[in-house]
Amino acid sequence: MFEGFERRRIGTGDADINVLIGGTGPALVCLHGFPQTHVTWRKVAPALARRFTVVLTDLRGYGDSSFPASDESHAAYSKRAMAGDVAAVMTELGFERFSVAGHDRGGRVGYRLALDEPNRVNALAVLDIVPTLDTYESMAWEGAYRSYHWYFLAQPFPLPERMIGADPDFYLDWTIRSWTSIESSIEDAAMLEYRRWFRKPGAVHAACEDYRAGFTRDVENDRADRDRGRKIECPVLTLWGGASSLRKPLDFARVWRGWADDVRGEAFPCGHFLPEEMPAETAAALLAFFERANP
Predict the structure, then answer these.
(1) Fold of 6-293
(2) Of 88, 87, 112, 117, nearest in space to 12 by CA
């Protein structure tokens, strides 16, 4: 799926991160979400690599990266820890400054990285998310029904692990298909890769720890930044799926303007998985945005 990309494994202290690198030019990191891996970028990365050095990673706990041990604090799977992995990977690769594109959980890692390491991030694109704190604060009964997994996966160990573990293929397939509005946009080869990760011992637990961290550490970190009036300093692009089943219609750009001064945004007529459902349009929007930030 990634012809011409080099694969590496980079240690970041308490995690080993699976990394793919391709292309030339300014550095651009692309981060995936749940329940997927770097494979979500397979249709977009080749176009980006014609202008940028594209770095794809599997987040800790996902894909072929390692699954660090966690505890009741869930700090090991906080977006701050995941953002630290990205910063360490880019340092190892020799890039002190770079841009970030993140889908779903990867977008949450991306904005945390931009807040924690403002001197390193040139520009940030967040796909189909608003900040975690805003999501929870706005999630009334209808939102909880649509996005039940936020609460289910965050339940204490071992409840979700046992329930999903009874048939992980079913849970993963049902989740991805139900969040997709354009049929056949996620081909069998990609689904096989997602299933391969989700079947690994510890994978379901790592995903649950990701969401437990979201419910605890990530909300705490967002609230601390908001209370201090801390904002993202770089330009922000938000793209979202206007036909997504996960939420009622929402102006994502308006929400992000509470977190950054330079925000532009656009809704696409698709579901949650923009890089797979509308890859040409996603690539074009990302290229236009990042080229302005990296003249």
Answers:
(1) Rossmann fold (3.40.50)
(2) 88
- The beta strands (E) that lie in 23-109 are given as 27-31, 53-57, 98-103
Ordered by start, the domain boundaries in the chain are 6-293
CA dist., res. 221 & res. 115, Å (int):
10
CB 74 within 8 A of CB 209: yes
Please choose, from the candidates 83, 60, 85, 109, the residue with its C-alpha nearest in 3D space to the C-alpha of residue 207. Answer: 60
State CA 10 to chain mean position distance: 19
- Residue 232, SS3 per DSSP: strand
| Partners of residue 232 on adjacent β-strands | 260
User: Rounded to an integer, what distance in angstroms lies between the CA atom of residue 30 and that of residue 64?
Assistant: 16
Q: What is the pLDDT of residues 209-223, one digit of tens each?
A: 999 999 999 999 999
| CA dist list (Å): 134 to 76, 153, 179, 222 | 22, 19, 21, 9
Rounded Cα gap, residues 273 and 248, in angstroms: 16
Rounded to two decimals, the pTM is 0.97
pLDDT tens across 238-294, in order? 999 998 877 767 889 999 999 999 999 999 999 999 999 999 999 999 999 999 988
Catalytic residues: 104, 272
Which tokens hold the place of 100? 């970030």
Element (H, E) at 198: helix 188-198
